[in-house]
Amino acid sequence: MSLVVKRYIPLAITFIMGFIMVIATYFLAPGTPARDATALLTATVDVLVVTAGAIGLVALLRHHLMNINKRGRFWQYSTITIIAVIIYLIIGLYGVATHEQRYMYASELFSWVYSNIYVHMDMTIFSLLAFFIASAAYRAFRLRSLEASVLLIVGSLMLLGRAPIGGVIWEGFPAIAEWLLTVPNAAGNRAITIGIAIGAISLAIRQLLGVERGYLGPER
Amino acid sequence: MIPPNIGQLPPELDLFAAIFGVFATIFIYSFLWKENPLSRAVEHLFVGLAAVFTLAFMYDAALSQAVWGTNRLAEGNFIWIIPILLSLMYFFFFSKKYFFLYRYPVSIVAGVMAGMMICGMIQSNFLAQIQATVELPLVGAGVWEGWPPAGLNSIIMIIGIITALTFFFFTWEHTGALGISTRIGRYFLMATFGSAYGGTVMARMSLFIGRLRFLYETSYQDWFWAWYLVPIAAIIVILVALWDRSKG
Amino acid sequence: MNFINEGLVASFAMLVIVLAEILIALFIARGGTHVPKIRKIAGLEAIEEAVGRATEMGRPITYTTGLGGIRDQYYYQTVAGLNILGHTAELAAKYGAKLLYFPYDPTIMPMAHEVMEQGYIRAGKQEAFNPENIIYLGGDQFPWAFGVLGTTYREQSAANIHMGPFWAESLILAEAGFYTGAIQVMGTANYHQIHFFVVASDYALIGEELMAAGAYLSKDPTQIGSLWGADFSKLTAIAIMLIGVILTAANVTALNDFLAL
């Protein structure tokens, strides 16, 4: 009995839901009431997972509170996280309490913090990639195999074709870059994409049949 | 959907945002030198804000879906209480005895997503790619003119797609003809990765230039310019890093 | 009225073919008539090496499953990443190494918890499993990536394993391992990021290799059968493309017309 409730019913639900979605896509014409009913299933996804956000927040708070409590490594920094969470949460809850439709993001201060504080950090971390892409490429130059050489030569040609300086050195570089992108790159990507489609379907089948280990796996 | 704002904020907050922006930018860049107390502080602040932002994002999405959407709870359609109740089952994860109940909302979501994924994969990843390959021109007017001719490109692409796809054969040994094919396929894959890498470099550089422009161009009421603070922030980074090192 | 929705006839035919191939091969392998051998996937073999090295050095292993949850269309990559997490947890438990996991989307936290715990149970060391090693860093791309970067650096991880859907943060994670001199094993099926992993990591799983990982690691005939079936599907794709190209060149449009149905 317990295995039925713990494993087989969730597995059956997953299977049935997956089946319904496939049937709806192929056999239920758009605009019919039956198709609209299955569209509601998709709409419930956002609602079904909403509490997970709270679970994440609780886990984060617990992790840092425990670190402070036992005076773990860098516990002082844990206080920064805790304070940030509390203040931002209060701002958000104030939004919920005062906004007519109870949205959290509706509080002007909440969205202000996002677009004036949060975004600065976001953009800066994103721009770290300018340094990382150069250092990773530099390290790649140490690779010594024919395959790696192909990668590096094609990469260098592509860079010369894309950077303004490449066109100044030789006007043929942009055309080569364009060709590399539309022919070999497109070919490789197409093969990868077809492989992914089949791999994902085969994974989904293993999951729906319950043969693959995972959260609904054979154990427990 | 962005809900309407409530309340009015004092304009002086813009000055605070600019000052914060400069310090945060320099502190984060200081990580490139070494991990230090300032980059660590920004990291912890950012993670805290992100956790609340994630919650807000998920909450707002669920609210707009379950309560304020067309024919939902706000219009008296009480069936939408069911997904909300199901969602609460996630919390059973904290229970030792009934932890498995969290699997119920998860199993619905996983099933819906699996079904949608299978259809999407077949349509846009499998069929559409085959269709595009089948239509590659090999003969016809102008196909073998110019350099490189379109016909030659087609042949290279067909060889590339097929050999690269054979690289993903898992249960047949890569020997003999298949071995040759997978080796050619690997070169195509490497060319794919090389061109993708080289093609991304400029886009990433422009992000850094964007940050430099922020530091250079941001101002407040003609008397404050953000770049005034760059040297100050840099000195703070150096002092704090030295202090951190002296502590061991 | 059409039986199958407009524009989806060829799509449905392809689905039937692929499903049939995978299911038939799966059941043949399950029955034991023929269990195919599976080719070596270097990236998956490298996980044991990475865990072993981390154990020797007495330093932890960093693991992430990318920016995926169960509520997005990339969830299949997340599931694949979780399967490899289970395997890594089992190895970490066996060797006695510390495994740090950083979930991105809070929706997968309970699953990750269970998968990790199962790994420890399989290794017979349930008591060694510490839920505190699952560290949530917010569900937003760059705070999460910066958190992983900083934590990896502070913990001086000796192994850096990333398996799942990744976007621009992929290179930040790869760089984290470089800072600490970690052995890096990474895999994704997001074709726009694979090249970063190929360049910056020691071992990379490319596209479909990631999804095959669960079956590969399990060594279970049924699961390997599904990979066998998937190979037939790829062969079918190659055959259709070759026949189609020849027919198009011969100006016969029947196949093109069917694919467009």
Mean pLDDT of chain A: 91
How much strand of chain A?
A: under 5%
Mean pLDDT of chain B: 92
Tally of helical segments of chain B? 7
Largest sheet: number of strands, sense, barrel closure of chain A? none
How many DSSP E strands of chain A? 0
Could you list the spans of chain B in which at least 5 consecutive residues all have pLDDT below 50? 1-6
- Large-scale geometry of chain A: extended
Q: Give the end-to-end Cα distance of chain A, rounded to a whole number of Å.
A: 13 Å
Strand content of chain B: under 5%
Work out the radius of gyration of chain B: 28 Å
Instruction: Tell me the series of helices and strands of chain A, N- to C-terminal.
Output: HHHHHHHHH
The quaternary organization reads as heterotrimer
Rg estimate of chain A, integer Å:
26 Å
Question: What do you see in this structure?
Answer:
The complex is a heterotrimer of chains A (220), B (248) and C (261). Chain A has 220 residues and is mainly α. Chain A has helices spanning 2-27, 33-48, 50-69, 75-98, 108-140, 146-162, 164-169, 173-182, 184-208. In chain A, helix 3 (50-69) runs antiparallel to helix 4 (75-98), helix 4 crosses helix 5 and helix 6 crosses helix 8 (173-182). The relative contact order of chain A is 0.05. The model of chain A has no long low-confidence stretch (mean pLDDT 91). Chain B is an all-alpha fold. Chain B is built from 7 helices and 2 strands, in the order H-H-H-H-H-H-E-E-H. In chain B, a hairpin with a 3-residue loop joins strand 1 and strand 2. The longest helix of chain B is centred in the last third of the chain and has 42 residues, at 176-217. Chain C is an alpha/beta fold. Chain C has a 5-stranded parallel sheet with strand order 2-1-3-4-5, with helices on both faces. Chains in contact: A-B, A-C, B-C.
Topology:
The complex is a heterotrimer of chains A (220), B (248) and C (261).
Chain A: H1 2-27, H2 33-48, H3 50-69, H4 75-98, H5 108-140, H6 146-162, H7 164-169, H8 173-182, H9 184-208
Chain B: H1 13-29, H2 37-66, H3 81-88, H4 103-134, H5 150-167, H6 176-217, E1 219-220, E2 224-225, H7 229-247
Antiparallel strand pairs in B: 1-2
Chain C: H1 9-31, H2 42-57, E1 61-64, H3 75-95, E2 99-101, H4 109-122, H5 141-155, E3 159-163, H6 170-180, E4 183-188, H7 191-200, E5 203-206, H8 208-218, H9 221-249, H10 254-259
Parallel strand pairs in C: 1-2, 1-3, 3-4, 4-5
Helix pairs in contact in C: 1-9, 2-3, 3-4, 3-8, 5-6, 6-7, 8-9
